[in-house]
Write a structure and sequence with these properties.
The complex is a heterodimer of chains A (225) and B (260). Chain A is built from 7 helices and 10 strands. Chain A is α/β, with parallel strands linked by helices. In chain A, the strands form 2 sheets. Chain A has a 6-stranded mixed beta sheet with strand order 6-7-8-3-9-10, sandwiched between helices. In chain A, strands 2-1-4-5 form a 4-stranded antiparallel beta sheet, with helices on one face. In chain A, a hairpin with a 2-residue loop joins strand 1 and strand 2. Chain B is mostly helical and 260 residues long. The N and C termini of chain B lie far apart (63 Å). Classes of the chains: A alpha/beta (225), B mainly alpha (260). At the A-B interface, helix 2, strand 6 and helix 5 of A face helix 6 of B.
Chain lengths: 225, 260
């Protein structure tokens, strides 16, 4: 396309061995700023592990991962995790009310800032003192997104954020992710379902038994889920 | 006053075997299938106490304060094994239990000795030290067990906090408070109800030995306070050390759990 895009993450021949097995086997790729990338693969293909390498929840056995040109090991790990947010598969509520949840890592946010964050995840109609335990699965996952966005990450990692949800809830989360992507947030999304990420991401990587077997635009890659 | 006059002689001890006989007879009658265990437990208790009595008699006769403290140190080593045994899956469990029980014991026993509350003689330091070590051991053991459960069951919660850039200290804070509190509840509860529900060991022993109850309780008060200190220090140290061992230098939570 001829447009030069800055790389957020660069992976160079990344290998991760666990219990004598290669979970990731020589993965090299670039993840660009302002783009949404999906990592597809069957369960056990290493896709979640790849995601967890990017915020240093896992450490590669060999190879290198750089963020903005710097090896990620040279960042203070807490700074790295503020730059690179992660939302897990199952929503985990860590506090008792919506307001507390958004402020968990940013206690200094005022009500207006919290409201803006809730607006970004389509929860702005909710009272901030509403109990998190009364929210549906989809609402909890969107609140988890707001909690991560509060830290103002450059990159947001999403580990199958809808796979634990029913279809309607999953669509509500997808819609929020789509709007975040369209506003230029860099997103890396793990999924086992190509259909789910069509029209949502700019680029797809396909992992098979730890190896990167396909990469390209969503329409180009061959992947059978 | 000759307190020993109220302690049963060997003939009395032999006669008390009749009580084991009663227990065995009742167990037989009720077909509990416990006869052998009752007898075995009674024989073991006899042999163990005889051995401890003999060792302590020699220890008190020949050892000075240093010997007594060495004995207490030995108890700390054993207590560390026991406390760590309840949470073997934790990294560095034994090392952490030893340090926790050791610091809890040293702080408490040291204070008692430095303030002159107890006499620096083996006949006092060894039994008091035993109570202190035992209190510290229970608290360390409960704290570590609780944190092992947290690390296994609350992994998603802890990682969700770490993913927001919180430090391991911050991510563990709510669990640490709950863990230490749970571990200290037995010590606090038994302090609250002392004298109301239970007449505890030190006081009972003194009264049996012929000491006036109003005098005996002085010792018991000291004992309760020292057990609170030993348990609290030991639990907090165990929690801190365990927390540190649970994370690596990149604040990643180690995998803890029974290997399947």
């Amino acid at each position: 396309m001829g447009v030069v895009v800055a790389e957020a993450f660069s992976l160079v021949d990344v290998v991760l061995e666990r219990d004598g097995r290669r979970v990731l086997d020589g993965v090299s790729d670039h993840i660009h700023h302002g783009m949404a990338t999906a990592v597809l693969g069957a369960s056990g293909s290493g896709k979640s592990t790849l995601l967890r390498l990017l915020n240093r929840f896992e450490e590669p056995t060999s190879g290198e991962i750089r963020l903005d040109g710097r090896p990620i090991g040279t960042y203070d790990v807490h700074e790295l995790r503020r730059r690179v947010g992660l939302v897990a598969q199952r929503p985990t509520m860590l506090t008792s009310t919506i307001g507390e949840e958004v402020r968990l890592a940013r206690p200094e946010l005022d009500d207006e800032q919290v409201r803006l964050l809730l607006e970004r995840v389509a929860l702005s109609t909710m009272r901030m003192d509403r109990a998190t335990s009364t929210l549906s699965g989809g609402e909890q996952q969107r609140l988890a997104l707001a909690r991560a966005l509060a830290v103002e990450p450059e990159v947001l990692l999403l580990d199958e954020p809808t796979s634990a949800l029913d279809d309607r809830a999953a669509q509500s989360v997808d819609q929020v992710v789509r709007s975040l992507v369209s506003h230029g947030l860099t997103v890396v999304l793990v999924s086992h379902d190509l259909d789910r990420v069509l029209g949502l991401v700019d680029r797809v990587l396909v992992l098979d038994e730890g190896r990167l077997v396909e990469r390209g635009e969503p329409g180009e890659v061959r992947y059978l889920s | 006053m000759t307190p020993t006059s109220q302690i049963p002689d060997w003939l009395g001890v032999a006669a008390s075997a009749a009580l084991v006989g009663i227990a065995v007879a009742v167990a037989l009658r009720a077909r509990l299938g416990l006869t052998r265990e009752l007898v075995w437990a009674s024989v073991r208790a006899f042999a163990q106490l005889l051995a401890v009595g003999a060792v302590l008699t020699v220890l008190f006769a020949v050892a000075g304060l240093l010997g007594a403290l060495a004995w207490v140190a030995g108890m700390v080593v054993v207590a560390g094994f026991v406390a760590a045994g309840r949470s073997k899956e934790l990294p560095k469990a034994r090392r952490n239990a030893w340090i926790a029980v050791g610091i809890g014991t040293a702080t408490t026993l040291g204070t008692l000795l430095v303030l002159g509350i107890i006499d620096p003689v083996p006949t006092v330091v060894v039994p008091v030290g035993g109570m202190v070590v035992s209190g510290a051991m229970t608290a360390a053991s409960l704290t570590m067990r609780r944190l092992a459960d947290v690390a296994e069951q609350q992994r998603a919660d802890i990682e969700a906090r770490l993913a927001l850039g919180l430090t391991s200290d911050e991510a563990m804070a709510p669990h640490m408070r709950r863990g230490v509190k749970t571990a200290l509840l037995p010590a606090i509860d038994s302090t609250k109800v002392v004298g109301l529900i239970s007449l505890p060991g030190a006081m009972t022993g003194l009264i049996l030995a012929g000491v006036e109850p109003i005098v005996a309780i002085r010792y018991q008060i000291v004992v309760m306070y020292m057990l609170l200190a030993a348990a609290t220090v030991s639990a907090v140290v165990a929690a801190r050390l365990t927390e540190r061992s649970l994370f690596d230098d990149a604040d990643r939570l180690h995998r803890v759990g029974s290997p399947r």
